[in-house]
Amino acid sequence: MGKRTGFMVLMACLFVLGMAATFVAPVFAQQAKVEYPEDYRSWHYLKSMVISEGHPLFSIVPGLHHLYANDIAFQHLKSGKNEPFPQGSKFAFELLDVATTKNSVSTTKNKIVFVTQKDAAFGQTGGWGWEAWTLPGKERIVKDVDRQCANCHYQSTSTFDGIWVKWDEVKNIAR
Ligand code: HEC
């Protein structure tokens, strides 16, 4: 093989490798996804809220929801530290359908679980991974993290590190 042919072969190889990297890289980037946290009900309970017609969130999360935090997120929230949540922090927002009868409201079924998980590997806004699953099928519903989740979570300067819940509002309930 002459010098010139060798050079051409080398260039061809580099080109093929380059193309492969272009195609493979986005596949790897997409692989880091938040996993459904089977154990979120054993995390720390934070609070509950009922959203009725007329509330700004009614179109997205009508009904009853509970918030949970894993131990890393809970300890950080409780400490009141004015710095971003540590890696491994997780929050869950569990939405339930309710049936309202004349004088009572009862839970009927699990509807959606929303999760934020601090891990740079997700490469998503704020260093959080954002995901939501419809139940019981556990189908992922987040297609555009910024439009569906982060925009709202970061819209207000009173939300710290993109997280709405504050220790002060849950300190008499959470444990
Ligand atoms: C229109 C605004 C809005 C959008 C869009 C939104 N959220 Fe939230 N989210 C809230 C509010 C407000 C709370 C606090 C609810 C409470 O106090 O009970 C919250 C709470 C949460 C919590 C509990 C931790 C916290 O921040 O208090 C998680 C987890 C969560 N949302 C995940 C998501 C995910 C994932 C998406 C996208 C699929 C999403 N949210 C979209 C407004 C929004």
Question: What structural keywords apply?
Answer:
single chain, 175 residues, alpha+beta, Chalcone isomerase, 2 domains, six-stranded antiparallel beta sheet, 4 helices, 6 strands, 29% helix, binds heme C
* Strand runs, count: 6
Q: In the CATH hierarchy, what is the architecture of the largest domain at level 2? A: 3-Layer(bba) Sandwich
Molecular shape: globular
Residues in β-strands, percent: 25-35%
- The CATH homologous superfamily of the largest domain is termed Cytochrome P460
Give the averaged pLDDT, no decimals.
87
Please identify the structural class as seen in this structure.
alpha+beta
In the predicted model, the low-confidence regions spanning at least 5 consecutive residues are 25-29
Ligands, ions, cofactors: heme C
**How far is it from the N-terminal to the C-terminal residue, by CA?**
73 Å
Query: What is Rg?
Result: 22 Å
Largest sheet: 6 strands, antiparallel
